[in-house]
Amino acid sequence: MESQNTSPRDQQITQLRPEIIFSESPQPLADFQAVLRQILKLQNPILVKIALHFLANKYKGFTQRDDTIKKDLLLQCLKKDIPFKKMLIGLVVGLFTESETETYLQNEQEINKRLVEFMYKRLSTQLI
C-alpha cells in the first residue's frame, strides 16, 4: 500500500505499528483493513480510556450497569453521537500515511463504517 517515495513521517508512523499477519482476502479494501487493525491495536489503550471516560460521564453509573446495557450504550454512542464517533475515528485517521490518507478520502464512508464496526468489537469486549 506504500509508495516508493515515502516521507520521513510516513516511515515513522509505519514503524510504530505492531505487525499483524493476515490471511489473503479477495474483499476490496482488504489491505486497508489490515492498516485499520494495526492502528487500532496501537491506539487501543487510548481508545479504551477515552471511550470509558466518555461513557462514564454521559451515563452516570455506567461501570455498574449490566454488560448488555453497556454494549448497547456503546453502540448507540458510536452510531448516534457524532462528536464522539468523529473523535475516535480521528485517533485512527491521524496515524495514516499520505497514501493511506488518499485511500481513506476516496473511500471515506465505507472505511468509517468498517472502522466503527472494528471499534465496537474491540471496545465492547474491553469495557465489560
Protein model, in words:
There is one protein chain. With 128 residues, the protein is mainly α. It has one domain. Helices cover 72% and strands 0% of the residues. It contains six helices and no strands. It has helices spanning 8-16, 30-58, 67-80, 82-93, 98-106, 108-126. Helix 2 packs across helix 4 (82-93), helix 2 crosses helix 6 (108-126) and helix 3 packs antiparallel against helix 6. The longest helix has 29 residues, at 30-58. The chain starts with 7 loop residues before the first helix and ends with a helix.
Characteristic terms for this protein:
single chain, 128 residues, mainly alpha, 6 helices
Global outline: elongated
What number of structural domains do the residues give? Answer: 1
Tell me roughly what share of residues is in helical segments.
over 70%
Please trace the helix and strand order, writing H or E for each element.
HHHHHH
List the helices and strands and how they pair.
Layout: H1 8-16, H2 30-58, H3 67-80, H4 82-93, H5 98-106, H6 108-126
